[in-house]
Specification:
Pfam families: FtsX (PF02687), MacB_PCD (PF12704). The protein is of the alpha+beta class. 47% of the residues lie in helices and 18% in strands. It contains 25 helices and 25 strands. Strands 1, 2, 3, 6, 7, 8, 9, 10, 11, 12 and 13 form an eleven-stranded mixed sheet that branches. Strands 16, 17, 18, 19, 20, 21, 22 and 23 form an eight-stranded mixed sheet that branches. The longest helix is centred in the middle third of the chain and has 38 residues. It is elongated.
């Protein structure tokens, strides 16, 4: 019996080949896209799940306040914070710090050969008991009990020693103003991709205590927030209770003057990747809103595919009403008819699911590249994938099978054989409603995709206030004694063709700079600060401002005669605005006070973007920096192709800094890295939008084919009585265009509110203009016309004799 149902279903599919093809293509692509996105979302939410104690680990961060307003959020805290929390908070059972060394990179030596490491941290002895980084060499017991011990990743071991059997090997590393020797005490598996705390090397925090100063920061005081701090909470700790304890902890620190205008905040490590965008994060984090947004879009795509399926299924069901009547006349029961329709729905959904799996196999690598996912990204091994696939099949069966199974099988044979059911408005209203719903989805997605593209282009092309084209940035050598060779290095560079100028600085636009709060000592003399602001400090020489194309609003630039003892600084417009100075010229000659010294404002430069165009303008203080090469050197090219001169620059570098690795980046490329996550989001969103449009147009084509086929005789009669081809085209297209126009009326207001909410997240943003809606709307109308034009034109040009010869 079941075999017979299968035969009938396959015969039906073959008979209605175009409808079967449209349904299979729409459902399979919709399923594949949705399953991809669900796996992507699962990956984004999987961060830190490799750590066995993930649900008990909290990262402490700092919020800097201006009254009740949060001014800046910093992911680092003061070094003593963790030990103090362990001592005073009953929920805390352990802590560890991770102090970043040599950001953004660190040069180390192994047997006089220099290597560059990018992620190096000083950590406490509890680090490996709190976090799960499995050791493949060495033992955790007794690790980091003494200074000078280091643990490296598997990749680092292979790079430095060409082996993982490296216990006892020695690594030479600059620490503060001296070089220290570290003994490898362990090798761990490479950090998983889904953790915020990846490292090439960690060493014992005790090593820091032997160094009076590291990067200008005292390592054990409450004056500098420079350390990542993590707490391990007791099992089954009530997080609300911990939050209450943390408030009391903050109050004690304020009472003791350890903190002023700042507070310590707790953050679950599982929330860091998607819900944290603080300064000095260990890597660029994701965004929960974008992830949920993509998930919502993916669900809309699969809903659109199901709408297609239901719409076409109901259309064909109405066409099959007479078949149902005949079956009932010859003895077919209502149960048998229901089972037949459900069998057809199951087969179609099952085949679509199989095609979806094939599409996923074919396009997996492309999806991984677009989504920025790790190469070992798991899809088929995840049980959730199969649960979602089976759920989609079951949903499709009931969505598409229910209407014909229950509606058609219940009608009386006499009614359907007379054709009264087919002439009713019941099916027409349902189909039109579904088409409107589907195109509302399509319109929303297309307008949003267009706006995302425009916003990203706007951020890329926003006026930076600096010229970052044709600038090669070279990282400083590791060893202090080599830095005195900088003048010779600079002079020889300037003698090269196409090199216009050379400058040293602490950071270049596109990189983070040091951050200080007014509460730690930056105050304008003669002004009593009523607010708390964070200022950003950069070290620059006399070439920096002209090389970067910055505009001097008032005062003078540094000169080669300037000395650090003169305590001169150049500030930006945002800084003087926060100080309440109305004009740039009024700031010249005023004194600042920080670090226990007086600093003279020598000039004011126009605001420029230092870190990211996504954030509001920051107040910047540029301190004069003599010609020591300690961070980066910027090389400005006047012409030619800078890439062709890299080899020559490397030769000069190695002549003055022998044995040091030559590392560099182009400033425009470095600056544009901030848009990588947005570009991935845009690519994924564009793919979803394209498939949503494809599915909607496929559905409209199928529906148009069905509707026009029913009106063939009507068109023949119209042609006989003199209707022109343009008139017939209008008649056939008008119904569909009206439906789409209704979708535009509904979809545009909804999209407006979605766009407004999304764009409000950007400091630099486009305005919501009429053309953001007009261009995508026009494109939708064009696509609709293309979808139906072939069928309508063929029908309008057909010989009316063919459609009327049997009448």
């Amino acid at each position: 019996m079941f075999k017979n149902y299968i035969k009938i279903a396959l015969r039906t599919f073959k008979k209605d080949g175009s409808f079967t093809f449209i349904n299979l293509l729409g459902l399979s692509t919709g399923l594949a896209i949705t399953l991809f996105i669900i796996q992507y979302v699962r990956y984004e939410f999987s961060y830190e799940n490799k750590h066995e104690n993930a649900d008990q680990i909290v990262r402490l961060t700092m919020d800097y306040m201006d009254g009740e307003t949060v001014v800046t959020q910093d992911c680092e805290t003061n070094p003593p914070t963790g030990a103090r929390a362990l001592k005073e908070m009953p929920e805390v059972v352990d802590f560890t710090r991770a102090y970043p060394i040599g950001e953004p990179h660190l040069n180390v030596k192994v047997k006089e050969e220099v290597f560059v490491l990018e992620k190096v941290f000083a950590v406490d002895t509890s680090f490996f008991s709190m976090f799960t980084y499995p050791l493949i060499k060495g033992t955790e017991k007794g690790l980091f009990q003494k200074a000078g011990e280091a643990v490296i990743s598997e990749n680092t071991a292979k790079r430095l020693f060409n082996s993982t059997d490296v216990i006892g090997e020695v690594i030479k590393m600059p620490l503060g103003d001296t070089d220290k020797l570290f003994t490898v005490a362990g090798v761990v598996e490479n950090s998983p991709a889904n953790t915020h705390l990846k490292f090439d090397m960690v060493f014992s925090y005790a090593s820091i205590y032997a160094t009076p100063s590291i990067n200008g920061e005292e390592v054990n005081n409450w004056g500098g927030n420079n350390t990542l701090t993590y707490l391990l909470l007791a099992p089954n700790t009530n997080y609300e209770g911990f939050t209450t304890s943390l408030k009391d902890f903050n109050k004690r620190l304020h009472d003791e003057k350890k903190l002023e205008d700042a507070q310590v905040i707790g953050q679950k490590i599982s929330d860091i990747h998607l819900y944290s965008n603080k300064t000095f994060e260990t890597e660029a984090n994701g965004d929960a809103t974008s992830v949920f947004f993509l998930l919502g879009v993916a669900l809309l795509v699969i809903i659109s595919a199901f709408v297609n399926y239901v719409n076409l299924a109901t259309s064909k069901a109405l066409e099959r009403a007479k078949e149902v009547g005949l079956r009932k006349v010859v003895g077919g029961t209502q149960g048998q008819l229901k089972f037949q329709f459900f069998t057809e729905a199951f087969l179609l959904n099952f085949l679509s699911a199989g095609l979806a799996v094939i599409f996923i196999l074919i396009f997996k690598n492309s999806f991984i590249n677009i989504g920025g996912l790790p190469s070992d990204f798991v899809i088929f091994q995840d049980y959730v994938f199969w649960v979602c696939l089976i759920s989609a099949i079951i949903s499709g069966v009931f969505l598409a099978g229910a209407y014909p199974a229950f509606a058609l099988s219940s009608f009386q044979p006499v009614t359907v054989l007379k054709g009264k059911f087919s002439n009713s408005t019941q099916g027409t209203v349902l189909r039109k409603s579904l088409v409107v719903f589907q195109f509302v989805i399509t319109i929303i997605l297309l307008i949003q995709a267009f706006t995302v593209h425009q916003q990203l282009n706007f951020m890329r092309n926003v006026d930076l206030g600096v010229d970052i084209d044709k600038i090669l940035v070279v990282n400083a050598p590791a060893e202090t004694k080599d830095q005195e060779n900088y003048k010779g290095f600079k002079n020889e560079l300037l003698a090269q063709a196409n090199i216009e100028s050379v400058s040293v600085s602490g950071a270049v636009p596109g990189q983070p700079t040091s951050q200080f709060s007014t509460t730690t000592g930056i105050n304008l003399s003669e002004v009593i600060e009523e607010h708390n602001y964070n200022f950003y400090l950069n070290y620059t020489d006399s070439e920096f401002i002209p090389l970067m194309g910055m505009e001097l609003m008032a005062g003078e630039n540094f000169t080669t005669l300037s000395k650090t003892e003169n305590n001169e600084v150049i500030v930006n417009e945002e800084a003087i605005r926060l100080w309440g100075i109305p004009e740039a010229k009024d700031a010249i000659g005023k004194e600042l006070s920080f670090w226990g010294r007086k600093w003279l404002i020598k000039g004011v430069i126009k605001d420029y973007i230092q870190e990211t165009s996504k954030s509001p303008q920051i107040p910047i203080i540029n301190r004069y920096y003599d010609e020591a090469f300690e961070s980066v050197a910027s090389i400005k090219f006047s012409g030619g192709n800078p890439k062709e001169q890299i080899a020559d620059i490397e030769s000069i570098y190695k002549a003055y800094f022998p044995g040091q690795p030559f590392t560099y980046f182009f400033q425009d490329a470095e600056y544009n890295k901030q848009f990588k996550a947005d570009e991935r989001f845009q690519q994924v969103f564009n793919v979803l939008t394209v498939f949503a449009i494809l599915i909607a147009c496929l559905g409209l084509f199928g529906l148009a084919s069905f509707t026009i086929a029913k009106r063939t005789k009507e068109i023949g009669i119209r042609k006989v009585i003199g209707a022109s081809t343009p008139n017939l085209l209008y008649t056939l297209s008008a119904e569909f265009m009206k439906t789409v126009l209704l979708s535009l009326v509904i979809g545009i207001p909804i999209t407006y509110f979605i766009l407004k909410s999304w764009l409000d997240n950007f400091a630099n943003r486009i305005e919501i203009s009429w053309w953001l809606f007009a261009i995508p709307s026009a494109l939708v109308l064009v696509l609709v016309l293309i979808s139906i034009s072939g069928k309508t034109l063929k029908t309008a040009l057909a010989n009316p004799v063919e459609s009327l010869k049997n009448e």
